[in-house]
Design a protein that fits this description.
With 327 residues, the chain is mainly α. The chain has helices at 2-28, 33-40, 47-56, 65-77, 92-127, 136-145, 148-162, 182-218, 222-229, 234-246, 248-259, 266-271, 277-286, 290-318, 320-326, and strands at residues 83-84, 90-91. It has a two-stranded antiparallel ribbon with strand order 1-2. Helix 8 (182-218) packs across helix 10 and helix 14 (290-318) packs across helix 15. The radius of gyration is 24 Å and the shape is globular. The N and C termini lie close together (10 Å). Residues 100-311 form the ABC transmembrane type-1 domain.
Length: 327
């Protein structure tokens, strides 16, 4: 509990710092989002309407920066992230909510699968080092070294255009109305298989190589030798003794990967025209939609912090030395 409270206090401070930077950074830039919006609609908006927009976006010149800062915190606690210029002044929270499930569903599942497959392969390759399984490492590393956009284009050319096994783009077919039905879910899975497969292949090499190297290091430890001398089964020695300790450094990397799931894989979403958070952030940057950019940065930052907090808890649960060291 003491370890958990210490970690929680640290991440709460980090969250406060990130939110504070998220507030001040746009205000340090030249101009403001309302001015950028008015330039695109010259002559269409009256001065009174422009003043109302500045009040709506917390940029009222009659208020000091400190007052704007506390108003910003009040809006955050009420769940109000502002209004998006590029989406017809729709609430930023609603705009993000439309893209978030697609990114989490696709990139999240692909990241978890890549971690599980890569860690398992790295465990086996490390245990049976010097055998035929060593060929897995250069093959996985090769796929990780290939530029992602090139891998995506090759996948589309071979499996979508050539063989016709999977759709080439989008999250579901054109003209399809989203609904919670078996037909729509099957269509989403079909459209997501190819981009998910490329994400898994692109990230597999790092998990395999990292776990293999840690397994080789752990196998020289005394507790593994003692476990083998006690006559324990090979499976128990591998997974209960060696892999359990070798996987600890992987958890930190996995936490970062989980945190950046919300950020999405921008190149993947562009190649496959997938409606995720990464593409939404690019569109917001192109349109200079500062409220939407602020909302996306905030969600991504908080997700990374929560993922790291969960990784610290899992690390302490797997490694008692961490708890003893903090005590």
């Amino acid at each position: 509990m003491r370890l958990l409270l210490q970690r929680a206090a640290f991440y709460l401070f980090t969250a406060w710092a990130a939110i504070t930077i998220n507030f001040f950074l746009p205000r340090m830039l030249k101009g403001d989002p309302v001015s950028a919006y008015l330039q695109k609609h010259q002559g269409e908006i009256s001065p009174e309407a422009a003043a109302a927009l500045r009040t709506l976006f917390g940029l009222d010149t009659n208020k000091s920066l400190a007052e704007q800062y506390f108003d910003y915190w009040g809006l955050l606690f009420s769940g109000d992230l502002g209004r998006s210029f590029s989406h017809g002044l729709a609430p930023v929270a609603d705009v993000i909510a439309t893209a978030l499930p697609w990114t989490v569903g696709l990139v999240g599942i692909a990241t978890v699968l890549s971690f599980l497959i890569g860690t398992t392969l790295g465990t086996l390759v490390g245990w049976f080092r010097g055998g035929a399984g060593d060929v897995v490492v250069p093959v996985a590393t090769f796929f990780s070294a290939v530029p992602y956009f090139w891998m995506g284009l090759i996948a589309i050319a071979v499996f979508a255009t050539g063989l016709g096994w999977f759709p080439a783009s989008h999250a579901y077919g054109k003209g399809t109305t989203p609904a919670f039905s078996a037909e729509f879910i099957g269509e989403v899975i079909a459209h997501g298989t190819l981009p998910a497969l490329t994400v898994v292949l692109a990230s597999l090499g790092g998990w395999v190589l990292g776990m293999r190297n840690m397994m080789i290091t752990v196998l020289d430890e005394d507790y593994v030798t003692v476990a083998q001398a006690k006559g324990l089964s090979r499976r128990r020695v591998v997974f209960a003794y060696a892999a359990r300790n070798a996987v600890l450094p992987q958890l930190s990397s996995f936490a970062l990967a989980l945190g950046f799931i919300v950020g999405g894989t921008l190149v993947m979403e562009l190649v496959f025209s997938y409606p995720g958070v990464g593409k939404l952030l690019l569109d917001a940057t192109t349109a200079k939609d500062y409220p939407l950019m602020q909302g996306l940065f905030l969600v991504i930052t908080l997700t990374v912090l929560v993922a790291n907090l969960l990784a610290d808890v899992a690390y302490a649960a797997l490694d008692p030395r961490t708890r003893q060291g903090e005590a």
